[in-house]
Here is the input.
Amino acid sequence: MNKTNNPKLKINAQELRKNMTKEERHLWYDFLKELPITINRQKVIGNYIVDFYCAETKTVIELDGSQHFEDKGIEYDAKRDEYLKSLGLTVLRYSNYDVNTNFYGVCTDIMKRLPLEGKLSRSD
Here is the structure.
């Protein structure tokens, strides 16, 4: 899926990678980066930039701040999720609050929902 040819979004994605939210940094450095599969940060897909993307499992992971729970944010996210799902992608959403207060639960849920069978060693 080569949906990354939007030069303006590519520059925005690079900036977002440099300036991740504290919740994105926490999830990335303390969990996702260590998984035995490739996960990209701030990946351009179509006209959107997703927080995290795993091509191998066709999974998008989104962290939602408070703006996502306002009417405009809910409407925007629904349209965005519909587009991503039309590409055959699974979208996982977690609130920043959950990352901050239940990090283990968020990580456990991601592990359950990513098909990682055979990729984790017995010591994991």
Residues 7-112 form a domain with the Endonuclease; Chain A fold (CATH 3.40.960.10).
